[in-house]
Design brief:
Blueprint: E1 4-13, H1 20-38, E2 42-50, H2 54-62, H3 67-84, E3 91-94, H4 98-113, E4 117-127, E5 132-134, E6 153-162, H5 168-177, E7 182-183, H6 185-196, E8 202-203, E9 205-206, E10 222-223, H7 225-230, H8 232-235, H9 243-249, E11 254-258, H10 262-276, E12 284-287, E13 290-292, E14 295-296, H11 307-314, H12 316-326, E15 333-334, H13 337-366, H14 381-402, H15 406-427, H16 429-432, H17 439-460, H18 465-475, H19 510-514, H20 548-552, E16 556-566, E17 574-579, E18 584-589, H21 597-600, E19 604-608, E20 614-616, E21 619-621, E22 624-625, E23 627-628, E24 636-637, E25 649-650
Parallel strand pairs: 1-2, 1-11, 2-3, 7-12, 11-12, 13-15
Antiparallel strand pairs: 4-5, 4-6, 6-8, 9-10, 13-14, 16-17, 16-19, 16-25, 17-18, 19-22, 20-21, 23-24
Bound molecules: zinc ion.
């Protein structure tokens, strides 16, 4: 493996504020960067802002600001967003910085000295939104840009041209001999067809506006934005002055971006580099678009998701997990709040959150909070199977991450979480804990479970760095790389840290989430209210019967057990923290003879919601669990078919 790894996001154009699209590219690049650091590479991760061009000058004017002031403001918003998203970039470049102006002028001179720039007159249809001349054949309704729908303008001006037409054959040859250069394959096929259809020389300067980098020796011209912008990847790598740094990081390993700018990065950029006599980047990856209501998220369509709201409500890692799990690299994906909630509750609260809570709680309870040693003699096929699954999961997840496919990597890791949950249920440590002769097997079980949890933690680290740190703190272990990650290397005798819930179950409604995005209001989009209670009918008087009015006074609800522990000095009582949808409550139940606390964590129960609080062994209980209590037998909790959200009423 190479010693260094250089990854870039596009530099984001600052004519508007950042949204989920920008956040997504940067979060994926961050996960890639983190995974490479875990593999021991010297990673250079670059992001930044593209600040020149007519569109920025116009946006500043519209905002009543000086252009530089406007640029500072938006660049600051990007920096703040990336801090909120936990982005681990090593550098943030702004194309208005002196180092970049020097680099762009240096590459211009090289290209010019190579004979690839000449002066001419450009006349054509120009889209000021995309800052591109649009070929007449591609215009929509004769006047509109095919990308954004804005009316194009006729522009004619003196311009420098880059001899792109010279590079057709060399580009096609490069695509052929470096099939990994453009990913996914569909983009490579598109670009091959585009170049094969013939390339025209490219207009690379403007005289009609001033907000740009002056062309060397001809200051009436400023550089056309792509020539300026693409060069940023070289600037940050030390071009043109720092040759040591440049040879260390250039060529870049990955340029990551949305698919709409793959052409500029796989046709213009390599041609500029060839003309300047510089090596080409290893790989250009174009990811798909986030769609909302089946349309691409964009400011002009008013369906933009701002990521900050999700981070505030669900935590950063929930957003990072969702976008990376949901979007298969290269394909489009829908940002749906229903899917967000269900992934949060199923994958994070239920699968990952529960297994963390279970394993740590059991070590706390049965081993005084110290990870026990594995006792090989006690192992059975179940333990061997878990070890095999863990080893296979490491291999698969690392291979998925090496292909930059974090959706697959997370799917792989979740197979180990499922296996670990199954292992605990099958082994029933709570039953082992009752029989002194099972002590060795109990300790082995808890060791193996904690060890598998350690592996899960290391594997989710690039996508969910905050959660990984929290689980490590609970397990009392240090950060771990991927270099030598393998099962059964957890040191025994480490003391657990403070145990805390990782992903508390969330009951935000889809409506609440929708209010966080700027989606257009649609008629009748609100979900239908739950069926109204039936009209009370008077019950026949007499006997022990109660009227439906009386019954309706009892508020029965579904709840979920978040944590559970035995009440000290009591044979029967268990104290639980439960999630009732709108809040968390403490509830004490006399079910300790039938259930171990660990069995209850994550379980859905039915309860009386509006019972007056009662004190049991000094603990205030808010509500009562419903259980069938057969004569002379142990209580059995009422349960439900399927997953019912906490807070649901029972009638
Ligand atoms: Zn356009």
């Amino acid at each position: 493996m190479k010693k260094t790894f250089y990854i870039t996001t596009p530099i984001y154009y600052i004519n508007a504020e950042p949204h989920l699209g920008h956040a997504y590219t940067t979060m994926v690049a961050d996960a890639i960067a983190r995974s490479r650091r875990l593999l021991g590479q010297d990673v250079f991760f670059l992001t930044g802002t593209d600040e020149h061009g007519q569109k920025v000058a116009r946006a500043a004017k519209a905002a009543g600001l000086d252009t530089r002031e406007f640029a500072d403001g938006i660049a600051g918003k990007y920096k703040a967003l990336f801090a909120t998203l936990g982005i681990s970039n090593n550098d943030f470049i702004r194309t208005t910085e002196p180092r970049h102006i020097r680099a762009a002028q240096a590459i211009w001179r090289r290209v010019r000295d190579n004979g690839d720039l000449y002066k001419g007159t450009y006349e054509g249809w120009y889209c000021t939104v995309d800052e591109l001349f649009v070929p007449e054949s591609q215009l929509v309704d004769g006047r509109k840009c095919p990308t954004c729908g804005t009316e194009v303008e006729r522009l004619s001006e003196e311009s420098y041209f880059f001899r792109l037409s010279r590079y057709e054959d060399r580009l096609l040859e490069h695509y052929r001999t470096h099939p990994e250069f453009i990913a996914p394959e569909i983009r490579r096929n598109e670009m091959t067809a585009f170049v094969a259809a013939g390339l025209k020389d490219l207009s690379v300067s403007r005289t009609s506006f001033k907000w740009g980098i002056p062309v060397p020796d001809d200051p009436a011209h400023v550089m056309y934005v792509w020539f300026d912008a693409l060069t940023n990847y070289l600037t940050a790598a030390g071009f043109p002055d720092d040759e040591v740094r440049l040879s260390r990081y250039w060529p870049a390993d990955v340029h990551l971006m949305g698919k709409e700018i793959v052409r500029q990065h796989t046709v213009y950029w390599p041609a500029f580099l060839m003309a300047a006599g510089l090596p080409l980047p290893e790989r250009v990856i174009g990811h798909g678009w986030w769609l909302m209501h089946e349309a691409k998220m964009s400011k002009s369509l008013g369906n933009v998701v701002r990521p900050q709201g999700y981070v505030e409500r669900f935590g950063l890692d929930a957003l990072r997990y969702f976008v990376m799990r949901e979007m298969v690299l290269g394909q489009d994906a829908n940002f749906a709040d229903e899917a967000f909630l269900s992934r949060y509750n199923a994958d994070l609260a239920n699968d990952l959150g529960n297994v963390v809570s279970r394993v740590t709680t059991m070590i706390q309870r049965y081993c005084s909070g110290v990870v026990p040693a594995r006792q090989p003699a006690s192992e059975t096929g179940l333990d061997v199977e878990l070890e095999k699954t863990a080893a296979a999961t490491i291999g698969r997840t690392l291979a998925d991450a090496a292909r930059f496919d974090f959706s697959a990597a997370l799917r792989s890791t979740w197979e180990l979480i499922a296996a670990l949950n199954k292992y605990v249920v099958a082994r029933e440590p709570w039953a082992l804990a009752k029989a002194p002769e099972s002590r060795a097997l109990l300790e082995t079980t808890l060791y193996n479970a904690a060890d598998a949890l350690r592996i899960v933690t290391a594997l989710v680290d690039p996508v969910m760095p905050q959660s990984a740190a929290r689980i490590r703190a609970m397990l009392g272990i240090e950060p771990e790389t991927w270099v030598d990650l393998r099962p059964r290397t957890l040191p025994a005798s480490v003391r657990l840290g403070r145990i805390e819930p990782l992903f508390p179950r969330m009951e935000h409604t889809v409506d609440e989430l929708r209010a966080m995005s700027e989606s257009p209001k649609t008629e009748g989009a609100a979900p239908a209210p739950a069926a109204a209670a039936p009209a009370p009918t008077p019950a026949p008087a007499g006997g022990d019967k109660i009227s439906i009015d009386d019954f309706m006074k009892v508020d029965l609800r579904v709840a979920k057990v978040l944590s559970a522990e035995k009440v000290p000095n009591s044979r029967k009582l268990i104290k639980m923290t439960i999630d009732v949808g709108t809040e968390q409550r403490t509830l004490v139940a006399g079910i300790a003879e039938a259930y171990e606390p660990e069995q209850l964590i994550g379980r859905t129960i039915a309860m009386v919601f509006n019972l007056k609080p009662a004190k049991l062994m000094g603990i205030e209980s808010n509500g009562m669990v419903l259980a069938a209590s057969p004569e002379g037998g142990k209580p059995t909790l009422v349960s439900f078919d399927g997953e019912i959200p906490p807070g649901t009423r029972v009638r």
